[in-house]
Amino acid sequence: MAASRPADRDAVARVIEDWARERPELDTSPLEVLARLHRSFLRYNTRLTASIERHGLAVAGFDVLTALRRSGEPHQLTAGQLADSGLVSSAGVTLRLDRLEKDGLIARERDADDRRVVYSRLTEKGLATVDTVFAEHLDNERRMLGRVSPSERRQLARLLRKLEDSILASDEEPPASTQ
Fold first, then answer.
1. Which 3-state string (H, E, C) describes 141-179?
2. Residues 131-167 as b or e (16 or more Cβ within 10 Å = b)
3. Is pLDDT at 83 greater than 90 in this prediction?
4. Share of the chain above pLDDT 70, in %
5. Distance of alpha carbon 33 from alpha carbon 49, whole angstroms
6. What is the Rg, in whole angstroms, of the alpha carbon atoms belonging to the chain?
7. What pLDDT digit, counting tens, does each position of 21-37 carry?
8. Which of 16, 113, 154, 177 has its C-alpha lying 20 to 30 A from 145's C-alpha?
């Protein structure tokens, strides 16, 4: 195999070559997947954040708005339900809700039957905002996946699901011995 020119190698390939030279006994094949995944995530996150921040939102606030929007009419959830939605961590939910309420994107309302229960509900402004920003978000993601065919997207989605399952299962396994 002919040696590749420096321009043909990306940063991950260079890192792998460096380790092969310095520690040839190590299997660096995990880097082929996980280093590329990490670099892709960093680039994705930069583009995601910039797109959302153009609308005066933080990613965490956007996650709250999308969770409320996905919940269906009347687009309201408790703080606990938001934390359980998967994208919003329980830490700081109240601060996020305070900011969104201050910006007029949500309103908080006590349950008529149980005054201890407080719902966060999308306002008309919040509904319009999340619909606009989410449509732009999907367009942005579509552009980022522009060189990946629909069948490759489905395959990649399956493989990423399998990777996530593998990472979760690794928590149950003892660490491999390092020698």
1. HHHHCCCCCHHHHHHHHHHHHHHHHHHHHHCCCCCCCCC
2. eebbeebeebeeeeeeeeeeeeeeeeeeeeeeeeeee
3. no
4. 90
5. 24
6. 22
7. 999 999 999 999 999 99
8. 16
CA distance 120 to 79: 7
First-to-last alpha carbon distance for the chain, in angstroms, is 31
**DSSP annotation of 7:** G
pLDDT tens, position by position, 98-125: 999 999 999 999 988 988 899 999 999 9
What is the spatial distance between Cα 112 and Cα 177, in angstroms, rounded to a whole number? 59
Q: How would residue 2 be classed by pLDDT, with cut points 50, 70 and 90?
A: very low
C-beta contacts of 164-173 below 8 A and 24+ residues apart = none
pTM of the complete model: 0.80
Query: Which run of H or E residues covers position 104?
Result: none
Task: Give the Cα separation of 24 and 17 in Å (integer).
Answer: 9
